[in-house]
Each structure stands twice: as C-alpha cells, then as structure tokens.
Amino acid sequence: MYLSIILILSAIVLVSQVDHSAFTVDPEQKPFVAPVGRDGVQRVQILAGEYFFTPKEIVLRVNVPVELLVKKASNVVPHDIVIKSPEAGMDIDENIGTEPKTIKFTPTKTGRFPFYCSKKFPFFKSHRERGMEGVIEVIP
C-alpha cells in the first residue's frame, strides 16, 4: 500500500516536470466556427493538452450532424471529454487517447453548453478547475 502511494506521487511529480511548451494556448483564441462539409456534417478537431482544450470555444449549427475528432497531446496524463447536455442532444463522456477518436452527435437545441475534462489526481484540483474546459455554442 505504502509503495503504491509512493509510486503514484512519483508519477505525479514526473508528469508535472514534463515540458509542454510546444502546446501553448493563445489566450486570444477566437471561436472555431465548424464548417458544414459537402456531406452535411460539421467536423471539429479538438486537442486535449495539459489542462486545456483547443479550440476552447466551438460554434455549431443546430440540427446538423457533428463529428468531433478528439485526441490528447501526451500519453502520460489521462484526459476525457464530458458534455452533459442531453436536453440538447449532447450526452458525452469519453476517455481521450493519443490516437484520434471520433465522437458523433447532432445538437438539437440552441444555446451555450460547457465541455470539460473530469479527471482529477488525488489531493490536487480537478483538470476542469485548472482550466480544462470550453464551450459549445449552438446557433440556428
């Protein structure tokens, strides 16, 4: 038991010392307006980095199918993407890996809906509390 705790804390220290400067986020980042492809599908690529998503703000059209292509930048820190808005056709809770994953849904209601990472290391703030969240704005 004691050895397990030491190994977990060692891993956390190692992860916190990894240089992620190549994945900096522009605080002035503009909302990403998803284009509608010839096949009628809106496609968005989302990168999960150390405590951020990019893009952080996504604009989608209501009642138009969506494909989110999500992946994480590093294979050390676990991440997921959570969108808990079933009233708007978005009820998603998916782990994110370094291999891209496609998540399909169709937003059925206009409005602003949060998405976030629900992961949390013991004794630390959650990833969401550390800024790993964004918003999907669904427009007519």
> CATH homologous superfamily?
Cupredoxins -  blue copper proteins
Mean pLDDT: 85
Helix content: 10-25%
Number of distinct helices: 1
Q: Could you give the order of the helices and strands?
A: HEEEEEEEEEE
What is the straight-line distance between the termini? 54 Å
Poorly predicted spans: 2-25
Give an account of the 3D structure.
With 140 residues, the chain is mainly beta. The protein has a single domain (25-139), classed as Immunoglobulin-like, CATH 2.60.40. It has one helix and ten strands; from the N terminus they run αββββββββββ. It has one helix at residues 2-16, and strands spanning 32-33, 42-49, 52-54, 57-61, 66-72, 79-85, 90-96, 101-105, 111-116, 133-139. Strands 1-4-10-9 form a four-stranded mixed β-sheet, with no helix packed on it. A hairpin with a 2-residue loop joins strand 2 (42-49) and strand 3. The radius of gyration is 16 Å and the shape is globular. The protein starts with a helix and ends with a strand.
Question: Features of this protein?
Answer:
mainly beta, Immunoglobulin-like, 11% helix, four-stranded mixed beta sheet, 41% strand
Quick structural gist:
The protein is mainly β.
How does the SSE layout of this entry go?
Elements: H1 2-16, E1 32-33, E2 42-49, E3 52-54, E4 57-61, E5 66-72, E6 79-85, E7 90-96, E8 101-105, E9 111-116, E10 133-139
Parallel strand pairs: 1-4, 2-5, 4-10
Antiparallel strand pairs: 2-3, 5-8, 6-7, 9-10
